[in-house]
Write a structure and sequence with these properties.
It comes from Bradyrhizobium cajani. By secondary structure, this protein is α/β, with parallel strands linked by helices. Helices cover about 45% and strands about 15% of the residues. It starts with 5 loop residues before the first helix and ends in an 8-residue tail after the last strand. The structure holds NADPH dihydro-nicotinamide-adenine-dinucleotide phosphate. NADPH dihydro-nicotinamide-adenine-dinucleotide phosphate binds next to helix 2 and strand 2.
Length: about 270
């Protein structure tokens, strides 16, 4: 068996630590039991973080916690319920310590075409995708370390005029505006607030459009045609950008929005 001299093993340990970007950090990820949130939770744990994930579905929360292992806990909390969100954050930080990262990611689709949208659906989309994001950040504030990083999940639909998405697009445009204002308000504590804005990503959010292999293939082809890079995005594309925004690699990035969309927003 190889025995490394002490100076060599300490050098190797330094290399390992340098390659793990979130060592000693605690992160909250709302909607961490599916899609983009779960991919981000996996990456964060692999990068050395302790992760608190929330969502509403107890079964998928349990499955995610089992998969993520001892450095993650999964707590049921509806993002539209401020008291439940506060309680989850309190419990999560009692377990893992104060937060260094918040990824306000929970969101729903919800078609709201001008001719047929109901007030109920419109308000549900706004309350989850906009109000829920605001109160997640507000609830996390007392539990945030100085110099923390907050990332909000936006969407290309905040800038592209895609029919049927009035409430969703309005909520995500609101997320961009809120991020800039929160960034100003929280800069004195060194806290950064940025937005990751995905294009179409392969996750369960697309519901029936990806429910069968045939439907998924047709959906992928449609997305590929409207995306300069010619493909649908994967949850890991977003997770890696969130990791950049969460880590010190983005230490001077404040109040920005990064589109991760294969070029959809940039194309004419
Ligand atoms: P998923 O449906 O896979 O994930 C959505 C997550 O949000 C789930 O974990 C869900 O958990 C959680 N969630 C929804 N409503 C609530 C609520 N009221 N309270 C707590 N958790 C909630 O979709 P994605 O991973 O694709 O979506 C994640 C984010 O990415 C959303 O904000 C979405 O708008 C955004 N996005 C996604 C795009 C895509 O193409 N996939 C494109 C642009 C943006 P549970 O059901 O257990 O509550």
């Amino acid at each position: 068996k190889t025995k490394w001299p002490r100076w060599q093993s300490s050098f190797i340990m330094q290399l390992v630590e340098a390659s793990v970007r979130l060592q000693g950090k605690t992160a909250l990820i709302t909607g961490g039991n599916s899609g983009i949130g779960l991919a981000t939770a996996r990456l964060f744990v692999a990068e050395g973080a302790k992760v608190v994930i929330t969502g509403r579905n107890k079964e998928t929360l349990e499955a995610a916690a089992k998969e993520l292992g001892p450095n993650a806990i999964a707590l049921a909390a509806d993002a539209t319920d401020i008291a439940a969100t506060e309680a989850a954050i309190k419990r999560g930080t009692e377990t893992f310590g104060k937060l260094d990262i918040v990824f306000a990611n929970a969101g729903i689709p919800g078609g709201t075409p001008l001719g047929s949208a109901t007030l109920e659906v419109f308000e549900k989309v706004i309350s989850t995708n906009l109000t829920g994001v605001f109160f997640t950040v507000q609830s996390a504030l007392p539990y945030l370390n100085d110099n923390a990083s907050i990332i909000l999940n936006g969407s290309v639909i905040s800038v592209l005029g895609i029919p049927g998405y009035s409430a969703y697009g309005a909520a995500k445009a609101g997320v961009r505006a809120m991020a800039r204002i929160m960034a100003s308000e929280l800069s004195p504590r060194g806290i950064r607030v940025n937005v990751v804005a995905p294009g179409a990503i392969r996750t369960p959010i697309w519901g029936a459009a990806v429910a069968t292999p045939e439907a998924e293939k047709a959906f992928e082809q449609r997305i590929a045609l409207s995306t300069p890079l010619g493909r649908i995005g994967e949850p890991d594309h977003i997770a890696k950008t969130v990791l950049f925004l969460a880590s010190d690699d983005s230490a001077h990035v404040q109040g920005q929005e990064i589109f991760v969309d294969g070029g959809a927003v940039a194309s004419p």
